[in-house]
Design a protein that fits this description.
Length: 396
């Protein structure tokens, strides 16, 4: 009987993993012993990190998306259909079109959603760049912004030890904002204030979620005239007064509020009944080594959907993908998992509009910051403009 491997989610995690599973199990796929299906709610694949550039008028729609089918190996059964419910115990999903799809193995790569409505007033007054429409709105406001105070807040999930989306992004966009305003010739008329909450995963009163980066950030910000505050945990926003209030009792005014909003899992994951995450955030309990869903050995979780203490970013998916492909292949061929995820994440941080800083870390070792360089910036541009699409295809 043909074994069915179902991948849910057409982002970078689901796309590269579906391609990698076919490559890993090609003999079985070729003779019809294994079938791989990818479900996505869109015919388009978006390079989501590019939304950050959209906010600064550096990327346009045609540059940041491809037809999903064009990124997939021909052996993959690709369907545009949204999963509306997961039945992990019954090894099946329900879709928006009314279909019930069974599976022998499933990979859940459904990402996360910004949830600014979880902080009173933030949805009405905050700007962010994690989706295309909000990024376009932010770009429009920045285009017209010539004088005033830009206040930056970062909001963590309530689930202990789970990071906010794309850990380095708030730092990246703060430095990009500084350079963007300098190019406009209005930087001396704009006050930029970067803040970080009191508790950031296991750290307290820092400017980032890892210690070594925390220690170098003050000097970088001071060299650019960027003000910063530790211990500002956003509690509410008054859109009319343009005031942000913290859980620590501070009030800060703003002309533009740039935020990393709270996040949550997609509805179908939230409603699966499997998550043990706080505040109904929906992160799935994931084995930190095998990436299997706890209690369901034929289900794997990756990317933003996991409850692990590693970045919710494409750099995590890139390293989780081969682990999942190897473990599904190992289980099919040998009856056991064969590979272990060490928490590795890598990326090139955009440190201003032109400079870049390669970074990597894992469960046991934090990021070791290095000086940003133009060569690093060229590496990031190369990834943005071409390498990413090879990664999605499972080539790199």
């Amino acid at each position: 009987m043909t074994k069915h491997i179902l991948v849910v989610g057409g982002g970078i995690g689901g796309t590269m993993t579906a391609n990698s599973i076919v490559a890993k199990l090609y003999p079985e796929v070729a003779r019809g012993a294994v079938k791989v299906t990818l479900l996505s709610d869109s015919p388009w694949h978006y390079y989501k990190p590019a939304f950050m550039y959209v906010a600064f008028d550096m990327f346009f729609e045609g540059e940041l998306r491809r037809k999903q089918q064009s990124l997939l190996r021909p052996e993959i059964d690709f369907r545009v259909d949204k999963v509306t419910s997961f039945d992990f115990a019954g090894s099946k999903v329900q879709t928006q079109s009314g279909k019930t799809i069974g599976y022998d193995y499933i990979v859940v790569s459904t990402g996360c959603l910004p949830a600014p409505e979880r902080i009173p007033g933030l949805k009405e007054a905050g700007d962010y760049f994690y989706q295309q429409k909000p990024a376009l709105q932010m770009a429009e406001r920045l285009r017209k912004f010539e004088k005033g105070r830009i206040f930056i807040t970062v909001n963590f999930p309530k689930t202990p030890n789970v990071p906010h989306q794309c850990g380095i992004a708030p730092v990246e966009t703060t430095l990009m904002l500084d350079e963007y305003l300098r190019r406009k010739g209005v930087r001396d008329q704009v006050e930029i204030v970067y803040t970080y909450p009191t508790v950031s995963q296991l750290l307290r009163n820092c400017l980032f979620l890892q210690q070594e980066v925390c220690e170098v950030m003050p000097a970088i910000f001071e060299s650019k005239g960027i003000k910063y505050q530790r211990g500002f945990t956003l509690a509410s926003v008054d859109p009319e007064r343009k005031v942000a209030t913290s859980e620590e009792g501070k009030e800060e005014g703003f002309d533009l509020l740039m935020c990393t909003p709270p996040i949550r899992a997609v509805d179908a994951v939230l409603e699966s009944g499997v998550s043990q995450a706080a505040n109904n955030e929906g992160w799935l309990p994931t084995n930190r080594q095998t990436l299997q869903l706890e209690g369901f050995p034929n289900a794997y979780v990756m990317g933003d959907t996991v409850d692990l203490p590693i970045s919710k970013a494409g750099g995590s998916c890139h390293n989780q993908c081969p682990i999942i492909a190897n473990n599904i292949a190992g289980d099919l061929r040998l009856g056991r998992t064969v590979d272990v995820y060490d928490g590795k994440v890598q990326a090139v941080a955009q440190m201003g509009l032109e400079a870049g800083m390669p970074l990597w870390y894992d469960y046991d070792e934090d990021v070791h910051p290095t000086p940003p360089t133009k060569v690093g910036g060229l590496l990031r541009k190369a990834f943005n403009r071409g390498i990413y699409w090879s990664v999605a295809r499972g080539i790199i």
